[in-house]
């Protein structure tokens, strides 16, 4: 029963804007204000971990595979939110780059990789924005959990960087009292009922594992942040504490603009896009694909929310097309199903009085250890969702073991159909339809990954629904899980209980595919909307493949064969495989775009918005090309960061591997020409360096557009150390360039652009010598046509930020 809220595009989408001004505006006008109306003083974001692999379950939550882009976008995010009086908790500090075994695995990396790659986004955010708090990662780094790692918290963050931020744990990410307290972890989350209880803290002081002085130091940081939040945004504390949602035309416009500016045009052979109905003679457009009408707006886990509104790709595209020509016929077929679990039934079930959802009745048991519920409910309430993550929202006076009964009616259908239900439980559950047992996920279970690793696999059952009949749906749920093969434990789910009911009409896959192909043959243009969703990319587990689900690839290939004018729209938070990429004429990658998904997509496909997004991560041709392939998984609790400094595009350049699409890549509906690359003379002051690169960009096409100018640095070849061959060190977005006009991009470089970490002396080093500066529109060699040398006649060392 969460309060509806704005769902912004995924972090990878924000990174794809390459626009720090826009992200800062989003932080101030949307994120800070949304936090206030949710009565929240601290926003638990941004996430700026590095995308070692697109398989990482939370990859969509981080901005990029590149530390500089990640750090600058994170700094803009933090600046915007905190300018609005709301604290940020930048996370997950540090090395939380995968999900499986996340509480235990040890990220083993060199000191150079730690400094130059994984700490760098946090360091840049600290330098340019000073987050008010940091959240530690669950995992270990080089042998020690970060929440109790004095080297990372005390020595680097506080002493070296000079940060005065509060340091909190992730939820249940504390594993000790004395180690965490002494390392500098100020706040255990959530609550005080885990490690830092009064009894255990006093015993730790009495046994001299910690001192009262150190406890007061930790407590002081909590009070300092509390005071700061109260002073910066007193309206949060002065309100009634009730969460709200609020929409305005200005907010919706900004949301739509952000989503559109993140969309990346990957391919556009024959200028198939933008769609021009009159010029192209379009009379009928077919929309196919499992994501076209699905509610795909975000990745899963902590990023999931209930949107205050949502525009599907189908609705957005249809509106955009009909705004141009209302006579165009638009047809639709799902073609191939893409969901991992059956779609939830939030808008299919109704209560007795007709509201979407069902009625929940909470029952205490005869005792905390009893499995027998009392006859009378402790509480009855309206529930408006069929994926119910209870967490700690059960009634206050309920017993340790409890039962939740859910009752609703499946809305009458327009025809008879065979319907398949799916039931997942973190606990145990049974599904009854018209008093008939359809699914037993109670007696014996299969352990699964859902509900943060506490849920079962989905169990299925079929029922014949009759046209015009309102069928009764009843679930019996208990928060005690049942035995499973290899696991007889009947543990009480006291922190992550939940139940999910989904369902869909049973359809023959071949018939579903054939229906899409028939529409494709009849249409002038086909738009295939395919991709992943919050069940494939989620907190709590990692992906196992880059492939799209089910028969998606087959659908795209066959639709393209049926109609050469096929536009493929992909949705995912990180990179995916596209075995059909060479064959289709147009590809648009839209990430997870939040509330305004369809509206933004419609704007780009019809040319109302000229796409300017650039890939914030490399799209490989195959999984084996990914830098961390072969050493991404936790092996006996250890994750070897064997690619070292060669993360993302740096690996592809170093090894001479051609990816499917390069980091920083993206097309436009116009064309740009670069010229006149010049460097200012380097100046030195106070242990820093200043150089400005300028380049002229001319719009040589026929429509206005925006261009992202990217600058890459190569360190001197005279260095004794190995360095990545190419590193992004500056970027600028030139907006609204009209046809035939030029603009100058000024790209400023400082000590960060020319430094590396010298492990022997634990300092940053700038060497004298020749640095190669390359400027272009992506990291692809063919796009970096302008090049010059930066000569530094003297080097220096530095520390801090």
From TrEMBL:
Keywords: Glycosidase, Hydrolase
Protein name in the entry: beta-glucosidase
Top EC group: hydrolase
Coiled-coil intervals, chain numbering: none
Molecular function, one GO term: beta-glucosidase activity
BP GO terms, sorted: glucan catabolic process
InterPro entries reported in the protein's UniProt record: Cellulose_deg_GH3, Fn3-like, GH, Glyco_hydro_3_C, Glyco_hydro_3_C_sf, Glyco_hydro_3_N, Glyco_hydro_3_N_sf, Ig-like_fold
UniProt family annotation: Belongs to the glycosyl hydrolase 3 family.
Catalytic reactions of this protein: Hydrolysis of terminal, non-reducing beta-D-glucosyl residues with release of beta-D-glucose
Annotated Pfam families: Fn3-like, Glyco_hydro_3, Glyco_hydro_3_C, PA14
PA14 domain mapped to chain residues: 353-517
Organism: Phanerochaete carnosa (strain HHB-10118-sp)
Documented EC number(s): 3.2.1.21
Organism superkingdom: Eukaryota
Keyword Lipid metabolism in record: no
């Amino acid at each position: 029963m969460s309060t509806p809220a704005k769902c912004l595009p995924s972090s990878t989408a924000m990174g794809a804007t390459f626009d720090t001004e826009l992200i800062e505006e989003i932080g101030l006008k949307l994120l800070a204000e949304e936090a206030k109306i949710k009565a929240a003083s601290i926003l638990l974001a941004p996430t700026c971990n590095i995308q070692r692999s697109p398989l990482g379950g939370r990859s969509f939550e981080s901005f990029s595979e590149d530390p500089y882009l990640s750090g600058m976008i994170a700094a803009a995010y933090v600046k915007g939110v905190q300018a609005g009086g709301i604290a940020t908790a930048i996370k997950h500090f540090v090395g939380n780059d995968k999900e499986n075994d996340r509480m235990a695995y040890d990220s083993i990396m060199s000191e150079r990789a730690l400094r130059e790659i994984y700490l760098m986004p946090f360091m840049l955010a600290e330098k340019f924005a000073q987050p008010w708090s940091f959240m530690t990662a669950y995992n270990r780094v080089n042998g020690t959990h970060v929440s109790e790692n004095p080297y990372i918290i005390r020595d680097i963050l506080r002493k070296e960087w000079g940060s005065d931020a509060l340091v909190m744990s992730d939820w249940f990410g504390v594993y000790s009292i004395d180690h965490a307290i002494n390392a500098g972890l100020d706040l255990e989350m959530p609550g005080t009922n885990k490690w830092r209880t009064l009894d255990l803290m006093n015993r730790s002081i009495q046994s001299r594992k910690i001192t009262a002085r150190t406890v007061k130091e930790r407590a002081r940081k909590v009070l300092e942040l509390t005071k700061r939040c109260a002073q910066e945004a007193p309206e949060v504390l002065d309100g009634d504490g009730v969460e709200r949602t609020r929409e305005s035309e200005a907010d919706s416009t900004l949301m739509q603009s952000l989503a559109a500016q993140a969309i990346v045009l990957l391919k556009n052979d024959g200028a198939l896009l933008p769609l021009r109905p009159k010029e192209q003679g379009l009379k009928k457009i077919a929309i196919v694909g499992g994501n076209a009408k699905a509610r795909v707006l975000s990745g899963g886990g902590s990023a999931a929310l209930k949107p205050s509104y949502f525009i599907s790709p189908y609705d957005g595209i249809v509106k955009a097309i009909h705004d141009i020509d209302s006579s165009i016929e638009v047809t639709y077929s799902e073609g191939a199903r893409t969901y991992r679990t059956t779609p939830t039934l939030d808008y299919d079930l109704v209560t007795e009085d007709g509201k979407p959802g069902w009625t929940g009745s909470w029952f205490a048991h005869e005792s905390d250890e009893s499995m027998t519920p009392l006859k009378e409910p402790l509480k009855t309430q309206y529930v408006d969702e069929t994926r119910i993550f209870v967490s700690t929202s059960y009634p206050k006076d309920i017993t340790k073991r409890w039962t939740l009964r859910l009752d609703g009616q499946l809305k009458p259908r327009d025809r008879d159909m065979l319907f398949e239900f799916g039931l997942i439980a973190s606990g145990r559950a049974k599904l009854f339809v018209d008093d008939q047992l359809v699914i037993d996920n109670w007696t014996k279970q299969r352990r699964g990954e859902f509900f943060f690793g506490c849920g079962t696999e989905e169990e299925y059952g079929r029922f014949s629904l009759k046209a015009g009949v309102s069928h009764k749906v009843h679930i019996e749920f208990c928060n005690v899980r049942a035995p499973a093969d290899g696991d007889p434990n009947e543990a009480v789910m006291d922190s992550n209980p939940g139940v999910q009911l989904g369902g869909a009409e049973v359809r023959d896959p071949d018939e579903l595919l054939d229906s899409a192909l028939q529409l494709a043959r009849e249409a002038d243009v086909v738009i295939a909307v395919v991709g992943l969703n919050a069940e494939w990319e989620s907190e709590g587990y990692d992906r196992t493949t880059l492939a799209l689900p089910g028969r998606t690839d087959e659908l795209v290939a066959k639709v393209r064969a049926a109609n050469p004018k096929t536009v493929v729209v992909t949705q995912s938070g990180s990179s995916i495989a596209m075995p059909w990429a060479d064959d289709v004429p147009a590809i648009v990658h839209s990430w997870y775009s939040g509330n305004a998904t369809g509206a933004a997509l419609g704007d780009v496909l019809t040319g109302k918005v000229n796409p300017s997004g650039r890939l914030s991560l490399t799209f490989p041709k195959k999984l084996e090309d990914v830098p961390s392939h072969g050493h991404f998984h936790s092996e006996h609790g250890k994750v070897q960061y064997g690619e070292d400094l060669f993360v993302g595009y740096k690996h592809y350049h170093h090894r001479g591997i051609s990816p499917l699409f390069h980091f920083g890549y993206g097309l436009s509906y116009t064309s740009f020409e670069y010229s006149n690359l010049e460097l200012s003379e380097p100046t030195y002051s106070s242990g820093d360096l200043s150089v400005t690169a300028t380049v002229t960009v001319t719009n040589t096409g026929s429509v206005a557009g925006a261009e992202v100018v990217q600058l890459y640095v190569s360190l001197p070849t005279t260095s004794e150390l190995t360095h990545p061959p190419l590193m992004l060190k500056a970027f600028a977005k030139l907006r609204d360039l009209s046809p035939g006009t030029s603009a100058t991009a000024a790209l400023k470089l400082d000590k960060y652009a020319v430094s590396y970490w010298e492990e022997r002396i634990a300092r940053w080093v700038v060497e004298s010598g020749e640095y190669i500066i390359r400027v272009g529109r992506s990291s692809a060699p063919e796009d970096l046509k302008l090049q010059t040398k930066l000569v530094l006649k003297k080097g220096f060392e530095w520390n801090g930020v």
